[in-house]
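lol ok so funny story. i was supposed to be doing the assay writeup but got distracted and ended up predicting the structure for this chain instead. priorities right. anyway since i did it might as well share w the group, maybe its usefull for someone
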Amino acid sequence: MRLFLNALGASCASGLTHLRNVIPQLSRFAGVETTLAANPEIRSEFADLPNISLPAIPPFANSVKRFWFEQTVLPDIVRRSKADILISTGNFALRHSPVPQILLSGNSLYTSQDFRRDLWSRKDYRLWLDNHLKSAVARHSIHWADLTIAPSQSFADELRRWTGKPVECIYHGFSPSVFFAQDPPLPSNIREQLDAARNHIRLLFVSHYNYYRNFETLLRALPIVRKHSSQPVRLFLTCEFRHGANPGSYRPEQANALLKELGLQDEVVQLGAVPYHLLHQVYRAADIYVTPSYAETFAHPLVEAMACGLPVVASDLPVHREICRNAALYFHRFSPETLAEQVLRLVGLSARQQFAKRGSNRAIDFTWQKHIEQLLAKAHQLLGKRNVIENVAFAHPTPPILREHPVEQLPA
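and the output, tada:
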């Protein structure tokens, strides 16, 4: 089978996580050849892999230019690659794909009413309009694709309600051999900040700063936890509340102002972005993982946290309940009070150990091997259906008379 993987939309977060785990494993699958269209900044990561071809793709100044390239130039590149199947990974499909197309749709912001309300309340009208336009294209893309796949059943159901089209679920995976592969020492500034909180309950939230991760609810919960906990509490973030330190155009002023208003400058440690190969050490230095996100499709950090033996406190999204099951405690996503209440339930060591064990057992259910096998199986099914349709059409061509005369002129 020859695959063409359009990953031009993978630039950060889960898109890159998916790409960096899937491509190396695809390269080792017997009988599979993959052509990968990826951004120039990350192409070099896959240059030495067997069975992976990398066509030259120009850099794009913005997503509009990238979309135009995908719709006008990429179809010809797909044809020249002689691919059997196109897999579009960036939420947007080709309108006229030259081969059967599988769309991997994994952006909940296009369907989230909470996100739209949040943008409007922040008066971020430019981002609101951008999201509105991209949502329309993402919705049409599900109609353009032959098959759409979501990374969780909850999000697949949401996409089906949104478009009226059937959407299937294939879970994203987790690779312990990759995640725990390296164990170099943490940079001294990170290690010192973690060590300085040894006598604290250390909370961790792994995310860039953006609006839909709902940082403000988490910050408002901290004074409540501090008031009712017998131990001091410290929150560690893998981001910084400053311009230029995070992907996208999200403005961190509101979070910064709230941090100062609540007097949390010492209780909230902004580590900044931590390289992926070091993340497992940060997880293991924490006591509880928290995520207040109000929009999500899979949530890789939840699986990473569970694999590291961390108990989880998560917002009450259907996808969070689906991924963590009984390995987490849940709270209303806009309620600092219930978030604090659930964190306080895990302050005791025995409770943390109980949830940590459940999480470790749940994390092993997600593998990239399984993800790729199921994806290839869907590709084979799609090719089989296309071949059947083409064979039937060839075996029973439309009679010439139907092409030459209107129906009412046919003889009885």
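The chain has 18 helices and 13 strands. Confidence is low (pLDDT under 50) at residues 388-412.
back to the writeup now i swear
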